[in-house]
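Follow-up to my post from last week.
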Amino acid sequence: MTIAFDYTRSLGPVLGRFMAGLRDRRVLGSRTADGRVHVPPVEYDPVTCEPVTDLVEVSPTGTVLSWTWTEGQSSGWALVRLDGADTALLHTVGAGAREHLRTGLRVRIRWAGDRTGHIRDIECFEPGEAEATPETAEGEPVAIMTTPIRLSYRHTTSDEEDRYLRALAEGRLIGQRCPACHKVYVPPRVCPADGVAPDEVVEIADRGMVTTFCVVNVPFAGQRLDPPYVVAQVLLDGADIPIQHLILGVGAEQVRMGLRVAAVWRDREQWSFTPENIAHFEPTGEPDAPYESYAEHL
Amino acid sequence: MRRAAVLGTGQTHHRARRTDVSMAGLCREAIDRALADAGTDWSQIDAVVVGKAPDLFEGVMMPELFLASALGAAGKPLLRVHTAGSVGGATAIVATSLVRAGVHRRVLAVAFEKQSESNAMWALSIQPPFTAPIGAGAGGYFAPHIRSYIRRFGAPPHIGALVAVKDRRNGALNPYAHLRQPEITLESVQSSRMLWDPVRYDETCPSSDGACAIVIGDDEAASSSSRQVAWIRATAMRTEPTFYAGKDHVNPRAGAVAAEALWAAAGIRSPLDEIDVAELYVPFSWFEPMWLENVGFVGQGDGWKLVESGETRIGGALPVNPSGGVLCSNPIGASGLLRFAEAAMQVMGRAGEHQVPGAATALGHAYGGGSQFFSMWVVGRQP
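User reply:
Got it. Predicted complex:
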């Protein structure tokens, strides 16, 4: 499973000027009340807690204070103190080989070719002294910086999940009963109320009743279905907790509490170890379940 | 137990997008106001407690790292609190506990969210393993439970709209509120778009950037304050699983049990008579009647009747959300702390245009997750 989003960062007055400087190949540090110059700039003075407003330009050349190297890489990680700054910046140094990187090495910023006012405008550091940057007027501060984040997960199934998914791959639904409260959970899981592992495996019908539902009319980022659609809590016959699923085969305005529904399975060739083997639920035509039969499941 | 009091509160001007400030700047806007309101400065703050919304909402996992200097935490203890949407309330309670335990004299509690940097609807609709890919945000989660409430007690359909009109008009009295709609009417709410049937657009909270901060002090700090403080008479937090067989989403057990503990600790026998104003966490308008019942102001099925009678307006028997509440401003991470701060502002007599006259005892309330985390406090003019 992968989830990803392009988060946007409002930079505010200090970081906005810092990023604008990078776009123009200039590095700005912030001077705090004790006279120290911080690079990257701090927004608030760690000693006085006051906002920092004094930004000063430092050199794009600096000195490696400390470093580390990962075998097989062409660059190392280093703490670089730029000339004019009192704090060090962590970045990569494209030194080519481990023996070329050392404490005290003079390094300069290698600027990205296409600079947008982003921390990635600093491609990396490289050995050497920078040429003087030509004087230019300070550009407009950058208001927003985009930081894409992408996360990939591999889920290791529990015994209960494993059993449930194997049954799904055979077109069956199973639950498991809690030995303490005797409730049947679908999907089976450690009982959230009693904190004990389930035991008895129970075959569950692929039909049941709508306990409650909502009609989703709102579109949103990442949505997998076109609205409007009905998302219902479906209490399967034999289960003591509803599952959430999609109701099709009936107009949204005709879906009601107590409606009897059955699973519509995808074609057998498409089945795998996933709940998506069930495409949706649709009405069976049976009489509605009486309110009392599901009131305690709301 | 040692006594503790709210010495001062501060909040930001909540907006859809506060692109003029970073997260640090947003927090400081609230903190600087809270320190000024408390008549204190950084030298007197002994510890900082910070809460924010779930990490995926902003894509920031450990805000306490990069915010440490902005929160004035250098050289002091800094704690991070997580309890989903109720985190603001939990943050206030953790800070209170540090003071009541005698560990610190003055603690700063701050909570924030910059919803504009992400998309909470997206973050809340990610398909967890083994479920159908049909999540639809917080509205999609809570709308079916609102339907269950309506069915269980035969509540008339306009109750949700009544709450929305009240809260949005209250918000118009609050200079910090994100949505300020003095002209809203029952008809306009009822003709607004149906988002998650039965929840309409105007019955739904906005997506806001904002922060809130409070300074909590011990007996000596409170006594040396030149201004009225809000004495913290009781706090309560309870948790339950998101789902379990027999979970009552309309009347969650953790909320009811927390409230019982809260009233007992505060020595309150009849909440409806003894509480002058309540700030309840109402992100969808129907949660006002649901929480009125859950915390025990009225019996089961009577919440909608109290709303319909108009008694939850400013001037009624129990004004609810005079600030406009979550329906007017929803920086999720801060929303719980805003409820707690607004309750304190009421008993301190510093709620401005939305002040409930004579408010002496107030409830602050928050909930989070799938109605699973509950936090509340009672504050009063007197200890």
